[in-house]
Structure formats: structure tokens, C-alpha cells
Amino acid sequence: MTMKTTQLTPRQLERLVAQLGTLRDGAVKLEQAYAAELAQIEPSHRGSARNFLHYLSIRQHDIRSLQQDLGSLGLSSLGILQPHAMSSLNSVMAILEQLTGRGFGSAPEPPVDFHTGPLLLRDHTRALLGPEPTDRLVRIMVTMPSEAASDSRLVHDLLLAGMDVMRINCAHDGPEVWAAMVENLRRAEREVGRSCRIQADLAGPKLRTGSIRASGRVIRLAPKRDVFGRLAVAGKVWLTPAEAIVPPPRGIRFTLRIEGNCLVQLAPGDLICFTDARDQDHQLRVSEAVGACWLAEIERTAYVEEGTSVSAARAGEPVGTGRVVDVPEVVTCPRSSVRSSCWQATTWF
């Protein structure tokens, strides 16, 4: 039986080398960018931290096509990088050096290798999460509800069901509640005969604001438009006397309260003219009377602010004037221009 192999051209091999070189250079640069933070890490964990940065750097790229090309050559597809990111890159590039007959410079010294990387990962996982369960490959972490402080049976049942880590969310409740949760867990450990780790997630920064000043008093009147921006349905506007306000009928979105003699003089077909907050001229076409109120329509978007003067016209002749009052305040939510990048603080005990 003849095995069919994939042969890449020298140019394709060069492209693979360039892609891998970019990944390796990026990993080194990210480590250098965090040099100050790495210096503060416990020496026994510093190699793992460097490896973690290398892994994060590689995962910022889409390497699916690269993985496919590497796999077609029988090389590592870089699918399992977590324990030894830099060592994996160095090994694949070393083989490509042999295939191309070219050198690609000295390889960076990896913080962990194919032997030490998995061992460190195993040891650190055990130290953090406890020994591996005998009946499964993963640990189970359960976030405690507030009831876990008062219901010891709940904690007992969770531990009995296989909980390996109790997670306390310190963004909620308080020290007394957290302590009661821990006490219930320690009691359950004695009763069940197995231990459980505790993770306490410390609350992050909470943005709080005081009262936000209103941007102003303005109402937006707008018709409905189709997907092409063409007028579909004119906007319905309820005109009510400011002295005797009447709520609008169901389905009417916009209300203007008008003081003066404008509404008294109206008739169907009249126009109510005004200049909006953008200094644009607009008109409402009066359609029908409802008691002392009127329904009108608008075909262009207008921004009507407090105190806007209005004038009614019929066949070009003025029939009354008025003023828009009691326009609701508009509060604009502030936008943050600062990117939020927070690390969540976690305590284990």
C-alpha cells in the first residue's frame, strides 16, 4: 500500500517559516512588555507565567490555516500549546530548518520544555484545586448562594455530590455571611470525610455616579421610514392645551403641550409652523379635533425644545400663536472614553 504524502513547494515552506517566526517574535515581545510584572512573581512560578504570556500571544492570531499546513507535513499542528508554548514553536521551526536547508536564527530559550511544562501544570493545578478526583478528570467549582450561610444542609449535599471548590463571590453579601459559609463547609468536611478548597473572588471596582444633570428639555418628533429612508407613515402628534392637559389616545407616541390661543383657532388642514432646536423650519398638519385637543402629523424629524414658538396658518394666513411648554427633560448617559481592563482578585484558602 502506497502512502500519499503532501509536498509543499519551497515557497510554501518559506511562508510557514515566516508565520511561525511572527508567532515566536510576538511571544517574545509580549513577555518583554510584562517584564516588570514578571519580576514580582515568585521565582518558582515565573517560568509558568512566562509560558502563559507566550500562549496568550499565540492565541491572539488565527492559526487554523497554519495548523492545516503543518499537519499535512506530519508536523505538530500546535494544537496543544498550553504546557510548553515556546518549546513547541522552536521544535517545529527546527524541523523546517532541516526541510529548507536554511537557518532561522537562534531560538529563544523556553521557560519550560516538553517534560517540565506538563509537570509544572500538574503540580500547580494540584496546589490550587486539590488532588485529582478518582472518578473524573475535572474539578467541580460551585458558586455559593446567600442561602449557603444559613442552610448547612445545602453545603453538605453539595460536598457529598462532588463539589471540589466552594466559590464565594465577595461582590455580594458581607464578611459575616462569608464566614458562615466557610463554617458550614468545614462542618460538612468533617461529616462527609473529604476536603474542599475555597475560592473567594474579591469585588472589583464599582462605578457610581451622583445625580446627572439633564441635557435640556427637548422632544424628538419623527415619522416612520422604510429601509430606504423614505417616508412610510407620518408621525402622529397629540396637541393638548397646557392649561387643561388631556392624555393622548393609545398609540400616539408624541405629545406637545401648547399654551396660548393657537389650538382654539384651529381647523382640519391647518398648518402649525415652528423652528426646531436645529434652526430648521417644520410644520405639523392638523388632521382632526378631539374635544379641545387636536391630532396632527409630521413628515420630517424635528427636535422641539421648551419654549418653542408656534404659529397656526390657514391658506397662508395666520390664525393663532402659542408656545410649547412642559417638554420633558432629557438625561444623556455619559460614555466612558477610558478602556476598562481589570484583573479580578482571587483569594484561595
Helix content: 25-40%
How would you spell out the order of helices and strands? HHHHHHEHEHEEEEEEEEEEEEEE
* Sheet of most strands: 7 strands, mixed, barrel
Write down the oligomeric state: single chain
β-strand number:
16
Strand content: 15-25%
Q: What strand line-up does the widest sheet have?
A: 7-8-14-13-9-10-11
Shape: elongated
Low-pLDDT residue intervals, each spanning 5 or more residues: 336-344
Structure characterization notes:
The chain folds into 3 domains: 10-124, no CATH class; 131-205; 216-330, Beta Barrel (M1 Pyruvate Kinase, Domain 3). 32% of the residues lie in helices and 24% in strands. It contains 8 helices and 16 strands. The protein has helices at 10-33, 35-39, 43-58, 64-72, 85-100, 116-129, 152-161, 175-192, and strands spanning 141-143, 165-169, 197-201, 216-221, 224-225, 231-233, 235-241, 254-260, 271-275, 281-290, 293-298, 302-305, 309-314, 317-325, 329-330, 346-348. The strands form 4 sheets. It has a 7-stranded mixed beta barrel with strand order 7-8-14-13-9-10-11. Strands 1-2-3-16 form a 4-stranded mixed beta sheet, covered by helices on one side. Strands 12-4-15 form a 3-stranded antiparallel beta sheet, with no helix packed on it. β5 and β6 (231-233) form a beta hairpin. The radius of gyration is 35 Å and the shape is elongated. The model is unreliable at 336-344 (pLDDT under 50).
